[in-house]
Amino acid sequence: MSSPASCKHCGSPVPANRDDGFCCTGCQYVFDLLHQQGLDHFYDLKGILSVPPVSPQSLRERDYEWLADLAKIAQPPGELRLALQGISCVGCVWLIEKVFTRHSGALRVNVDLVHGEMLLSYDPARFDPVAFARDLQAFGYLVGPPVEGEERKQASGLERRMGVCGAFAMNAMAFSLPAYFGMPADFAFASWFDMIAAASATLAMLVGGSYFIEKAWHGLRMGALHIDTPIALGIIAAYVGSIGGWVFGVEGLKYFDFVAIFIFLMLVGRWAQQAAVERNRRKLMRDTSIPDSVTLVEGGKTISLKALKPGTAFTIKPAQSVPVACRLTSPHASVSLEWINGESEAQDRKAGQMLPSGALNIGSRTLEAEALESWQDSTLRKLLEARRPGEFRDLRLERLLRWYLAIVVVIGMAGAALWLLRGAGMTAALQVMISIFVVSCPCALGVAVPLAEELAASRAEKMGVFVRSLGLWKRLMRVRRVVFDKTGTLTLENPVLENPEALARLDAESLSALRTLVAGNLHPVSRSLFDAAGPGELRPDSEVREEVGLGLHFTDEAGQEWFLGRGWEGDACLSKAGAVAAAFRFRDELRGESVDEIRALQGRALGVYILSGDRESKVAHIAQQLALGEDAWHAGMTPEQKAAWVAEHDRHDTLYIGDGANDSLAFDAALCAGSPVTGRSFLEQKADFFFLGHSLRFVSGLLDIARLHRRATRRVFTFSVGYNLVTVAMGVMGHLCPLVAAVLMPLSSVATLSLVALTFSLEKRARLVSQTELPVPAAVGVVA
């Protein structure tokens, strides 16, 4: 089977049901817009790199009231720092700069690709930040409030440590080299050189070494061992030995340059390991459908959610979630319960009826309601505050590290005792012991494993999957059970237009009217029609009004009424002045390649299950399409029931994939979890990975990448074992001095980096050969 075609815009795989070269209408729209406006140099700068697919839903009308308010209080005036979603390469930076400079009053924009932010400088009297944000949105970039507080502090802390320790390492090496090249001990500035090297190593210990020592100590207090423990042992041994050698004038114990360089290299490795994960975490901004506050009906005062009490009358804006269970006081409402029970159809509510916590206002009007419970008692709060377990503990690795540390300590002490018995003296014995502790540090693992993480994450991104958890690859290797939510996960988020020819027959006027009607509405039918029609020209100055339960309408400049609502000829009809212009039919549809992917997972001896809050008849229909037995699917489940099922069946081997608030508790019970990006969920922010696009064929690909990652790390580990055997033997024999250690450390790092790169490149070459020469049965699915 040949490799799937790549999207012309983003590079993601093109679904099997599309033959236009694009993965979605969003990418097609942006591709055409870039060429129409002469900005297609973007693709020259992007090169072969993949960029995030442009979800059609990200091009919908958005509320930028928050941005207008932020611009009013900006300090200093004319300067704004904003979060950016959708940037991934230098082409994105170039495009954003081009879009910015064509706005009146624009002065300067600095785009931070690493942190997903931009800093705007502009003339407040002439520049319109909201207009700029809407212009960027047309190209698939979304702006949001800047990241503040502890989250921003943590993101930059490791970078600062790395930068400072890099300077200390250069300093320590520069003032240690003269001694290696034969500088006599009685040289006038020899003592100054030692002092500067010692000061540099000490500062490196305080700034960077403390990072690993604190983590190792915290792990030991929790009864856990991880890779930071042997790193901390080596750093402490080298530093203490160096201080002793400096004080007592023993040259063979001075490892100051080694201490500073080793700390710097370990920080580089740790930063590289976290960089891709942090970058992916910043690709998505916080879900704006969940408000931080609500507005009271009387007086229009804004209060925090924590202040919501039973009896409080408040408002719910369009596209916002209902924070607490409440009684509707507005005449009508159109809401979606998809988050709560998986029901994809819109629900109509009348005055006096209850709105459950977590329901979404998909109408175009602000609703009024009376709270029936406090925020502390609401279901939405419980789901939002649920937390996934911390870092995955690999017990096998902990046992291995325990034995490793014990062996290193025993060999080090035995080596020292052996030299004492031979009458070499305490200094020589200490040098042997410290040199063994130093060279046994997992330097090679510390720099090679992050490279494996980066290469694996890059492979995943080519499939539209973005990793958010450092422990994902280890967790995936333990997976024996894959559990799917139904609505929005196995099936597409929106119903599929069954008769696209009806849309193709519309003239430009009717198509523009249809886009105007659906652009600001979140009803499933409106979302589906927006996806199918794609963004484009809207009718200017046309106020769309909603008749809840009936449809949407507006009057154009010629006085003719356009209406979209239920009709006899289809699920929805577009009419002009009472005459039907088009009738549309819809159906729920599985994500692309779902059937093949389920077969591929079962072919790997994995259990596949569906847990859904939707009706039994609808879940049974999907299960039948996927050829799943009756014991492999469950319908009508509450969030608590989903979590209880996972907790009962999980043996630290369950992968859960879902997209709604009713999946939040099950996320926390599973070993690892993933979520599609819908733009209306918070699960992407707590998942181990999130994915874009309409296909499910990435699941097998992720498992293949996990195996490749394990293969690469095992080869590095095997090399490291051999390297340690040789170097420890040299240490016991007394052939290791600071100079030899300083030479071997970078050489071993280069060797392991090359080993990882070779493993991934050989696999890629073998995969390309298999795709062209050895066809794979259709049921096996697609390998990354």
From TrEMBL:
One of its GO terms (molecular function) is ATP binding. Belongs to the cation transport ATPase (P-type) (TC 3.A.3) family. Type IB subfamily. PROSITE patterns: ATPASE_E1_E2 (PS00154). Keywords: Cell membrane, Ion transport, Magnesium, Membrane, Metal-binding, Phosphoprotein, Translocase, Transmembrane, Transmembrane helix, Transport. This is Cu2+-exporting ATPase. The keyword Cell membrane applies. The chain crosses the membrane at residues 162-183, 189-213, 225-249, 255-272, 403-422, 428-452, 716-733, 739-762. It is found in: Cell membrane. It is a multi-pass membrane protein. Gene3D superfamilies: 3.30.70.100, Calcium-transporting ATPase, cytoplasmic domain N, Calcium-transporting ATPase, cytoplasmic transduction domain A, Calcium-transporting ATPase, transmembrane domain, HAD superfamily/HAD-like. Residues 82-141 form the HMA domain. Residues 6-47 form the Putative metal-binding domain. The keyword Lipid biosynthesis does not apply. Pfam families: ATPase-cat_bd, E1-E2_ATPase, HMA, Hydrolase. GO terms for cellular component: plasma membrane. One of its GO terms (biological process) is copper ion homeostasis.
